[in-house]
Structures are given as C-alpha cells and as structure tokens.
Design a protein that fits this description.
By secondary structure, the chain is an alpha+beta fold. The protein has 3 domains: 3-97, no CATH class; 102-149; 172-297, no CATH class. It is 40% helix and 20% strand. It is built from 8 helices and 11 strands. The strands form 3 sheets. Strands 1-3-2-4 form a 4-stranded antiparallel beta sheet, with no helix packed on it. A hairpin with a 2-residue loop joins strand 6 and strand 7. Helix 4 packs antiparallel against helix 5 and helix 6 (178-190) crosses helix 7 (200-216).
Length: 306
C-alpha cells in the first residue's frame, strides 16, 4: 500500500526565480521591494478554495507517528496481525469539483429565484383581484337590497332577488324575510288612511295595531316564536330571541346572537357576530339609536294542548 511520511511544519512558498535573480532588485527602493514581495507571497492565497463534489473517492488514514495510508475503501487498511492503532484519524478525500457543474447549479438556482419572484407576483395579483371582486359583490348586494325596497314582495323579480340574496348571505347574517314584508304590506292596505286627515296620532295607532296583529299571526312566521313585543327595558332580550327593526330604511329580522352586560344600562345586543352588528338597548328605547322600532319575540312558542 502506498505510504508517505508527514512533512515538516515548515511550508515552502513558491516565488518566481526570475524575479529573485532580477538585477532591478538591487536598484529598487526598500518599500517598493516589500510591496512586490507581499504580492507574490499572497498570490496563492487569492485562488478560490476547492469545492467537494459527490461521494468520497478515497480515505486517508493518519497515525500520530507520521504514518499515512491512502485507500479507496472505507475499511481500515490493517490486517488481523496489525490491529487499528489508537489515535488513528480517518479523513475522506473528494474529487475536484467540475467548474462547469458548479456554474450549471448556480444558473439553476438563479432560475429558481426568478420563478419564486414570478410566483409571488402572481399570488399578490390574484389576492388583489379576489379582494376587488368581493368588494364588487358586496356593492351588488347593496344595490339589490335598495331595488328590493321599491318592489312588491310577491312579484317574480322580488322573489328572485330575495333568493339570490339569501343564497349569498352568511349563516348568521340578518336577512329580509319576504313573508314578513308581504304581511306588512297587506296590513298597510287594511288601514283606513282617511283617518290621517283627522290626526296623525289616530293613524299611527291604527298602523301599529295592524302591524302587530300581522306579526302575531303564526301562519306567516318563518319559525315558531312568541308574540312580538316592543323593547321596553334592559334584560328583556335573551340570546336566541327574534328581533325586528328598521336600519337606514331597511327592515331587518334577525336573532340575538350575543348579549353584552345583560340587564344593565350598558346592555348591547349583537345580532350579527361576524360583522359585529349590534345596538344599545337604552339608546333603542330612547329613540337615539339608528335601530328604530325594535320588537322582540321569544325564539320558541309554547303551544297549548287542544
């Protein structure tokens, strides 16, 4: 097996012989001579370090006594008569890296970076597009609700709009119930509007009676519930109770989803948790809230046995 002795600690540095034998050195100033000597000595250090490539091609076994053995197998190069001596160091040896392979990998990494940048840009554009489409959808729903206010509830167009809005609404969102709107319009027709000529108070009382009687009817209620009662004090509304009121000219019928500070003067009724839609009980009673004419009905109606 090939062997070699450990070299001494003194390393030899290669310096061009023609530079040392140059006559110009005798005429060169000392500082310039030192600069050129440093350049020649540092020139080997400027070379790039060799890169390892692939699996080891050989192993170097070194012993403290200076013995060096190089093998192409990872197994120890010692026979049974000569066991592995202590403090024997094993160093893997690699082939020199192929410069062309290194450049290819660098180019491939650069291409991957460009692909990642392009993908990030596409993701940002798609996110912006989705956000814009959501905004447009919300605006379209708002326009449909405005159109629905001016339509007769039983017309085919109103029914289609209600179906579209109900399909796109979130589960906890407050929606306009067409059956309630239809009942309110029927009650409006039943009132003697000539009474308004003799005073608005009588006409308002007649309207309130007609509307309450319509809302009490179980045949038009979307779910079983108790009678509608006006909101009069904190603590009256319980979670799950049905509420109806008007907001900015729109009629809303929804359930109480959450009650904050129940039974106190700070009571707040949340009827849409996802959008955080709520009203303050004391303001609704005083008429200072934008939620007008709040009526409350129990979620379940106890039927009396016949």
């Amino acid at each position: 097996m090939p062997t070699e002795n450990r070299s001494s600690n003194t390393e030899m540095v290669s310096v061009p012989r023609e530079w040392l034998n140059s006559v110009a050195l005798l005429q060169m100033p000392l500082d310039q001579l030192q600069e050129q000597a440093v350049e020649f000595l540092c020139e080997p250090c400027d070379e790039p370090a060799e890169q390892q490539q692939g699996e080891p091609v050989a192993w170097l076994w070194e012993h403290v006594n200076g013995l060096r053995i190089c093998t192409t197998s990872e197994r120890a190069p010692f026979t049974n008569e000569h066991a592995i001596p202590p403090n024997c160091k094993k160093t893997p040896l690699y082939a020199h890296a192929n410069p062309g392979e290194v450049e290819r990998l660098r180019a491939e990494n650069e291409q991957l970076r460009e692909v990642i940048k392009h993908s990030d840009s596409n993701i940002q554009r798609q996110s912006l597009r989705i956000s814009n489409q959501r905004t447009q959808l919300a605006e379209m729903d708002a326009l449909l609700r405005e159109v629905l206010v001016g339509l007769w509830p039983s017309t085919p167009l109103a029914i289609k709009i209600n179906a579209a809005l109900s399909a796109s609404a979130e589960p906890s969102a407050a929606v306009i119930h067409p059956i309630n709107m239809k009942a309110m319009m029927q009650a409006y027709e039943q009132v003697d509007h000539k009474a308004m000529l003799h005073g608005t108070s009588n006409w308002c009382a007649a309207m309130a009676t007609a509307l309450r009687g319509t809302l009490h009817s179980e045949t038009i209620a979307p779910v079983e519930r108790g009678p509608w009662l006006p909101l009069s004090a904190p603590g009256q509304i319980q979670e799950g109770d049905w509420l109806c009121f008007t907001v900015s000219g729109s009629f809303i019928c929804a359930q109480a989803r959450l009650i904050i500070y129940p039974g106190t003067d700070k009571e707040e009724i949340v009827y849409n948790r996802k959008k955080n839609h709520y009203f303050c009980t004391d303001m609704a009673i005083a008429g200072t809230s934008n939620h007008k004419g709040v009526l409350v009905a129990r979620a379940a109606l106890e039927r009396k046995p016949s």
